[in-house]
Amino acid sequence: EAGVAQSPRYKIIEKRQSVAFWCNPISGHATLYWYQQILGQGPKLLIQFQNNGVVDDSQLPKDRFSAERLKGVDSTLKIQPAKLEDSAVYLCASSLRGGQADTQYFGPGTRLTVL
Amino acid sequence: GNSVTQMEGPVTLSEEAFLTINCTYTATGYPSLFWYVQYPGEGLQLLLKATKADDKGSNKGFEATYRKETTSFHLEKGSVQVSDSAVYFCALRDGTSYGKLTFGQGTILTVHP
């Protein structure tokens, strides 16, 4: 079974530029998550989708971050414009249904450096 | 809100030593508890989990017991190997239908031969 795929693996941009990350979850997984992991910290949830609807985006900086999940499968996370403090690893995860004991499977992440 | 506190690291051990990484949590209701591991250059992987009080999760020689009375989920291994060197994250998931994972800050473990 293929895991969660993410691209690109690395991205370097200058502040005020825009950037987009792509995620393909495990086939059949209804729930998709985007996390931000700043160096030395644990991952923090940015947004959670159930199929193609948003169920939690309370920690997403909506003035600069946006995300969509087309047709309930792939997802794209965008930052526009980027700030220095956005430098982090962006992790995508998916789970079968999103229940309390459901296991989340993580992709390899995209490491973003903002100069 | 929910929170997870892990023991401060990094932790450095010799091979075959006993490992404990402390984890305590604050949550409403009855959360599920998880340990994730991140090996160098790899993504987060689920190591073990427990979904109710007194449950013991175990995998690859690691164990953790869900202690509701002390709100703890400490990770233990009797004899560590060099290959266990990684970052370990404790996490919880609350009881709402689509509860998000709340992570601790991570503990870096280095095992020397």
Largest sheet of chain A: 7 strands, mixed
Nearest-angstrom radius of gyration of chain A? 13 Å
Q: What does the main sheet of chain B amount to?
A: 6 strands, mixed
Beta strand % of chain B: over 45%
Provide the structure class of chain A: mainly beta
**Succession of helices and strands of chain A:** EEEEEEEEEEE
How many whole angstroms does the radius of gyration of chain B measure? 14 Å
Q: What is the residue-mean pLDDT of chain B, rounded to a whole number?
A: 93
Unreliable stretches covering 5 or more consecutive residues of chain B:
none
Distance between the termini of chain A: 37 Å
Tally of helical segments of chain B: 0
Percent helix range of chain A = under 10%
- Per the principal axes of the C-alpha atoms, what is the gross shape of chain B? globular
Q: How much helical structure, as a percent, in the residues of chain B?
A: under 10%
Strand content of chain A: over 45%
| N-to-C span of chain B | 41 Å
**What is the β-strand count of chain A?**
11
Series of H and E elements of chain B: EEEEEEEEEEEE
Quaternary structure type: heterodimer
Descriptive report:
The complex is a heterodimer of chains A (115) and B (113). Chain A is 0% helix and 49% strand. By secondary structure, chain A is an all-beta fold. In chain A, β5 and β6 form a beta hairpin. In chain A, 37% of the residues are buried. Chain B has no helices and twelve strands. Chain B is globular, with a radius of gyration of 14 Å. In chain B, strands 2, 5, 6, 10, 11 and 12 form a six-stranded mixed sheet that branches. In chain B, strands 3-9-8-7 form a four-stranded antiparallel sheet, with no helix packed on it. The chains are: A mainly beta (115), B mainly beta (113).
